[in-house]
Amino acid sequence: MKPVSFEQKKCERILSLLDSYLSSELLVETNHEVLQHLEECKACSAALQNRVRVKALLQRAIANDVPAPELKARLQHRLRNNLTEARKPKPSWQAWPMAAAAALVLLVGGYALLRNPGIFSPATEHARLSEVSEQAMRVLRIGLGDHVQCAINHRFHERSLSEATMSELLGEGYYGVARELKSNAPEGYALTAAHECNVGGRPFAHLILKKSTGFVSVILTRKQGESYPAAAGNIASFAGKLHQSSLDGFQVAGFETNQHLGFFVSGLGEQENFRIATTLAPVVQQHLTKLEL
């Protein structure tokens, strides 16, 4: 019998959870377990990125197009065959998820080419993924990193601070943001904590809006050369552009001013996080713009 290491078993468990992780369907504890493992394991992190790319390709290929019934049946049949083949024993225990992802990419690409032969130019498709989507996600990960380290790992979301304490911990400039959040918080949410923190040598203003079923981190930091691409993610109707993505099981929405990046990060659903962000981003942006004058 071939021995199976503890690390291998751990990776097999994490790989089995990745689809639920991407769909934000895991419990907070399990989500945190997956996130910690991905930070330590390059192989599983690479598998996650492959699934993110597959999901993006699938969404773009079929967003506004419904296949004919016979084409849909043919693709489903091919997909089942590819997945069956992928599940057969491979030299590496990592081969199945990679093969399944590759099969799905081929099917999505085949469907898209049948419907519109010109859309999958390899050069332009790679450019979109690497220069637009990945650029936006790199910026959004700045806010995600502070949320995970401060709100989750250090359990900042469990704290309840007085207004005087929050004012002292934030300083007068950013405490103006706290006042705006308190006055404009969506129904059911309350500002419970706020302070300045530092993650990886980068300072952040971190505020918590909380309700009985969850919480949102509102995170602000000065730019260090970062900026969003011209168009990526969702665009809100206010003056600035609001970008949102599901990253590592969290919902992250972000905007920018001339000098600041702002983020809304939560374990809530996509629509709820985006609703809060579109409600509050305009007033936060306005206050930050005044600070920058």
List the helices and strands and how they pair.
Blueprint (H helix, E strand, L loop, with lengths): L5 H17 L5 H13 L1 H21 L6 H18 L8 H21 L6 H32 L9 H8 L1 H13 L5 E10 L2 E10 L2 E9 L20 E5 L2 E7 L3 E7 L3 H23 L1
Antiparallel strand pairs: 1-2, 2-3, 3-6, 4-5, 5-6
Provide an overview of this structure.
There is one protein chain. The protein has nine helices and six strands. It has two domains: 6-120, no CATH class; 130-292, Phosphorylase Kinase, domain 1. The chain starts with 5 loop residues before the first helix and ends with a helix. The chain is globular. Helix 1 (6-22) crosses helix 2 (28-40). It has helices spanning 6-22, 28-40, 42-62, 69-86, 95-115, 122-153, 163-170, 172-184, 270-292, and strands at 190-199, 202-211, 214-222, 243-247, 250-256, 260-266. The protein is an alpha+beta fold and 293 residues long.
Provide a brief overview of the structure:
The chain has helices at residues 6-22, 28-40, 42-62, 69-86, 95-115, 122-153, 163-170, 172-184, 270-292; strands at 190-199, 202-211, 214-222, 243-247, 250-256, 260-266. The chain has 293 residues and is α+β, with helices and mostly antiparallel strands.
- Measured between the Cα atoms of the first and last residue, the distance is 70 Å
Succession of helices and strands: HHHHHHHHEEEEEEH
CATH fold name of the largest domain: Phosphorylase Kinase, domain 1
Tally of helical runs: 9
Helix-strand category:
alpha+beta
Radius of gyration: 21 Å
Mean pLDDT across every amino acid position: 77
Helix content: 55-70%
Q: What is the CATH C level class of the largest domain, in words?
A: Alpha Beta
Low-confidence stretches: 90-96, 109-132, 232-240
CATH architecture identity of the largest domain = 2-Layer Sandwich
Query: How many domains make up the coordinates?
Result: 2
What share of the residues does DSSP label as strand, in percent?
A: 15-25%
Q: Tell me how many strands there are.
A: 6
